[in-house]
Amino acid sequence: MLFTSLPFVALVLIALFVYYLPPMRRWQVEVVTLASFIFYSWESPYLLTLLVVSIVINVVTSYFIAQGNPLKQKFWAVWGVALNLGILLFFKYSPLFAKTFLGGDHGSIGHFLMTIPLPIGISFFTFQGISLVVEVFRSKQPNDPFDYPDMVPKSFMEHLRHTMLFKTFFPNLVAGPIIKAHEFYPQIQPKLFSEIAWQTAFRALVVGYFLKMVVADNLKDSTFWISYPFFLNYSSFTLGTLLFGYSMQIFADFAGYSLIAIGLACLFGYRLPANFNYPYISQSFAEFWRRWHISLSTWLREYLYLPLGGNRKGNVRTYFNLFTVMFLGGLWHGAGWSYAVWGTFHGLALALERLCTGRVKLPENPLMSVIRALFVFSFVTLAWLLFKLPNFTEVIAYLKAMAENRATTNPELVAHVFFYSAPVIAYYAWYLAKRRWAGISRFEFLVFGILLAGIILDSGTTGAFIYFQF
Amino acid sequence: MIPRAFIVCILAVLGWHFARPHLPGFYAVPGQQRANYLRSQQFVHDAPADAKVICGSSMSDRLDAVKLGADHVKLTFPGGGPLTGLDLIQKTGRTPPVVWVETNVILRAAEEDLLDDALSAWRRELRERSPIFKEEGRPSEFGVGFLKAVATKAAKALETPKAAAALDQDTFNDVMKANRKHLDRKPDPKDLATKIARLGTLIDDLQTKGSKVILFEMPFDQSLTELAEPTAVRNALHERFPADCYCWLDLSQAEAWQTTDGIHLPPAEADKVVARMLEFEKEAR
Question: Could you report the predicted ipTM of this complex, rounded to two decimals?
Answer without folding.
Answer: 0.82
